[in-house]
Amino acid sequence: MTSLAPAFSGDIADCPSPDLSFLLDHTSHVLRTRMAAALAEVGMTARMHCVLVKALEEERTQIQIAEIGDMDKTTMVVTVDALEQAGLAERRPSATDRRARIIAVTDAGAEMAKRSQAVVDRVHAEALGSLPEELRPVLLEALTLLARGHLAEPVESPAGARRARQV
Amino acid sequence: MTSLAPAFSGDIADCPSPDLSFLLDHTSHVLRTRMAAALAEVGMTARMHCVLVKALEEERTQIQIAEIGDMDKTTMVVTVDALEQAGLAERRPSATDRRARIIAVTDAGAEMAKRSQAVVDRVHAEALGSLPEELRPVLLEALTLLARGHLAEPVESPAGARRARQV
DNA sequence: TATTGTTATACTCTATAACTATA
DNA sequence: TATAGTTATAGAGTATAACAATA
């Protein structure tokens, strides 16, 4: 019971109308655990899947993929290490920039991307499929509007900004 | 740019139909940063707010509030410490169980709970208010159905279970 | 000088373990 | 024996700093 939904109305069964924070926190957290469990069955994580897919679309460097997936470049290193160890991707020198590494997906990686995408699609379909049909498009529409509009950008964390390292 | 949305379609502007995982992760993450920033202005965190509200409703022990808010009891200790230091709540011995501590909200705490609840309501109203009026109830309805139904309970994390401590 | 990628590590968060005191 | 609360700390995750190679 990881408390990723740390606040507001906890007991949804009793609650006539839980608030937006609780609803978004709870549903995203649970969906994430379902996704992680489903991807783990094929030996993948959500990050590995994301990198694989973005690397397949076109030739991209680590930094480019990190930006797309909103990861730190150091997190990217760890993820690419995992993909390499699993034989799903390789680092190749860029032809145009000798500092940069192209993430090349192996045949096994391309195969895996298909499987993991099927897993992702299945998990999403199961969640949406549990809703009355008329609610499915409006849920996606409303969330998309929020994600593009009022909830597009995180605001600065008040005390959360990581301090500089002690030297 | 905390990467709490570590996967799937990153660039929402280009994406015709971002997937449910991205939408829920992104919106919940950004709403959380907005809530944290707004509550920080009155010196509160979401957890402190949650504990204060639940302690005000009726006489409750730390464990009871921890269960409602889905927190670990050790996390609860830290939160109550913060509330005590801010003069918003006090630990009082339970009349019926000398092991247990009732979380008693001070006058300042009750005042603060009003203010922080107003902050919470405002942040939610701003988010919902950014949507076309007809989408607001259906968004809440769809999320509530998911939170009570298919996405009610987290599934076990594959490798996530914390290991026993090294002795 | 700025940037890509790497290593090393510091910071935050949260849960486990062990403990005290009660039940 | 089991539970409420506490302390201390381990483990996971992630970002900062410093660095090497290159732009």
UniProtKB/TrEMBL annotation, chains A, B:
HTH marR-type domain boundaries: 17-148
Pfam families xrefs: MarR_2
Organism superkingdom: Bacteria
Name of the protein: HTH marR-type domain-containing protein
